[in-house]
Design brief:
The complex is a heterodimer of chains A (179) and B (253). Chain A has a domain of 95 residues. In chain A, 16% of the residues lie in helices and 42% in strands. Chain A starts with a helix and ends with a strand. Classes of the chains: A alpha+beta (179), B mainly beta (253). Strand 3 of chain A pairs antiparallel with strand 1 of chain B.
Chain lengths: 179, 253
C-alpha cells in the first residue's frame, strides 16, 4: 500500500510538473518589435480642417511653395512651416488630412489624397482651409487588416476602433498577427 | 515638378541676364505650382494632375482647377510603384522592382515606353536631360529581400531602351535632388552625398558630403532643404565647394 501510494504520488508529481512545463510554454510572454495600427474614427476620417501647429512624430514627404515648407505627417496631414527666413523656420499651422500621403499645390488650391479620395482644398486662408471638391475612390483600396510592405509582427486590427490611419513601429506584447 | 521649376527659375534668370535661354522644358510648366521632394507620388504638369497608388496611374484635367476631372485611362503597372518624377513630356516612375518611363505628350492618352528592371528596393528617380538617377535600397519598410544600396545612373536618351551606365555603392540611399550639374543623394547616417554629374557618360564624381541624416531633399537654386527624422536642415550651396548650414530646425522639443 505504501509503495502504491508512493508510486501514485510520484506519478502525480510527474504529471503535475510535466503539465506545468507545458502550460508555461504555451503562454510564455514575449515582446517583439512590429507595427501597431493607429485608428481614426469614421466621423473624423474625412474631416479636413486647419489646426494650430501640431507635434511632429513621423514625417513623410516635403513640398515647397512660396516660402512655405509643407511636411507630411504620415497619415494625419501636413505641417506648414514658414520659411521666409531660412535661418529661422517656424511652424505656423497644420492641415488635418487623415490618411494623407501626398499633396501638390496650384495657385491657392491644394490637391491631396484622403484615404481613397482625391480632394481639392482651398488654402487661400491657411487658418481656415476649405474642402471644395472630392472625387471618391481614386486610390486603390488600402488593405485594412494588415500593414502593406511589412514583414514581421503586427498588432491585429480591431475594426470596431475605426479606420486604420497609419501604422507605427512599437514594441508589441504577444503579437498574434504576423506576415 | 522639381526639374520643371528649377528649369523655369533658371530659364527666367537666363532670360533676365542673357536675354536668351536654351533651357527647354517641353512640359507646359506652371509657374504657380510648387516643388516636390523626390518621394512624391503626385504631380502637376501644366493643367494635368497625375496620381499614383500602389499599382496604377490616373490623369485629371484641371480645365476648372476647383473641379478636377478624370480623363484618359488608368494605366496599371506592377504592384509596388511609389514615386513619380515628370520631365520633358515624360513621367519617370520608381517602383520596387523597376523604373518605368511613360509618355505624357498627350496627357489624355499616356502610355508606357519602357520598364527598366532592377533588384528589389525603394527607388525615387530624378532626371536631367538624358540621364535618370535612381536610388535602390533594401530597407525593411520596402519589403526588400536583396541587400542592395546603390545609386544607378541610367541613360534615357532613347526612352524606349534605357541603358544603365553605372552603379555607385552607397549605405542607405533614399531621396535625391538635382540642380543642373549637382546631384544630392541622402545616404542615411553617411550624410548627404554631393555629386558632380556634368559628365554622366564617363562617370559621375563625388565632390562633397553634408554630414546630416536626411531622407529627402529639395535643391532650390542655391538653397538645399533636407528633411530628416528629427530635423529640417537648410544649406546654402551657392558655392558648391563651401556648403554652409543655414539652419537646423528640430521638430521634437
Amino acid at each position: 500500500m505504501k509503495k502504491i501510494s508512493l508510486f501514485l504520488a510520484s506519478l502525480t508529481l510527474i504529471v503535475y510538473v510535466f503539465s506545468c512545463d507545458t502550460y508555461d510554454k504555451s503562454v510564455e510572454d514575449f515582446t517583439a518589435e512590429g507595427l501597431r495600427p493607429v485608428y481614426i474614427s469614421m466621423e473624423e476620417a474625412d474631416t479636413i480642417k486647419s489646426l494650430s501647429p501640431q507635434p511632429i512624430n513621423q514625417l513623410g514627404k516635403i513640398y515647397y511653395k512660396d516660402d512655405l515648407i509643407y511636411v507630411g505627417e504620415q497619415g494625419r496631414g501636413v505641417h506648414i512651416i514658414d520659411n521666409t527666413n531660412p535661418a529661422e523656420p517656424s511652424r505656423i499651422g497644420f492641415i488635418q488630412i487623415p490618411g494623407n500621403k501626398d499633396i501638390i499645390i496650384k495657385g491657392n488650391l491644394m490637391y491631396a489624397d484622403n484615404f481613397r479620395d482625391l480632394l481639392t482644398i482651398d488654402i487661400s486662408d491657411m487658418n481656415n482651409v476649405i474642402e471644395i471638391d472630392r472625387i471618391a475612390d481614386v486610390y486603390a483600396e488600402i488593405p485594412q487588416s494588415y500593414p502593406i510592405f511589412h514583414n514581421g509582427y503586427f498588432e491585429c486590427v480591431d475594426p470596431s476602433k475605426g479606420l486604420v490611419m497609419k501604422w507605427e513601429t512599437a514594441m508589441l506584447e504577444n503579437p498574434a498577427c504576423q506576415r | 515638378m522639381k526639374k520643371i521649376c528649377n528649369t523655369l527659375i533658371l530659364s527666367l534668370l537666363a532670360i533676365l541676364f542673357f536675354q536668351c535661354s536654351d533651357f527647354d522644358s517641353a512640359s507646359p510648366a506652371s509657374s504657380d505650382s510648387g516643388t516636390s521632394g523626390s518621394l512624391a507620388a503626385m504631380s502637376i504638369v501644366g493643367d494635368y494632375i497625375f496620381t499614383l497608388d500602389n499599382q496604377s496611374i490616373k490623369t485629371f484635367y484641371l480645365s476648372e482647377p476647383d473641379k478636377p476631372k478624370e480623363v484618359g485611362q488608368t494605366i496599371y503597372l506592377d504592384f509596388g510603384v511609389e514615386t513619380m518624377f515628370p520631365y520633358d513630356n515624360k513621367l519617370f516612375i520608381g517602383s520596387q522592382t523597376s523604373m518605368y518611363i511613360l509618355d505624357i505628350t498627350n496627357p489624355t492618352d499616356i502610355s508606357v515606353l519602357a520598364e527598366h528592371s532592377h533588384f528589389f528596393g525603394c527607388d525615387p528617380v530624378v532626371v536631367n536631360d538624358s540621364i535618370a538617377f535612381v536610388t535602390v535600397r533594401s530597407a525593411e519598410a520596402c519589403r526588400g529581400f536583396v541587400e542592395t544600396n546603390q545609386l544607378e545612373v541610367v541613360d534615357v536618351t532613347d526612352p524606349m531602351q534605357p541603358n544603365t551606365l553605372e552603379f555607385i555603392d552607397l549605405n542607405n540611399p533614399a531621396g535625391l535632388g538635382l540642380d543642373n550639374q549637382y546631384l544630392f543623394v541622402t545616404n542615411g547616417d553617411a550624410g548627404i552625398q554631393v555629386f558632380d554629374v556634368s559628365t554622366p557618360r564617363t562617370g559621375i564624381e563625388p565632390i562633397g558630403n553634408i554630414p546630416v541624416n536626411a531622407f529627402d531633399v529639395i535643391p532650390l537654386d542655391g538653397l538645399l532643404i533636407a528633411v530628416g527624422t528629427d530635423n529640417l536642415y537648410q544649406f546654402d550651396y551657392t558655392d558648391i565647394n563651401n556648403i554652409v548650414q543655414i539652419s537646423s530646425f528640430k521638430y521634437r522639443l
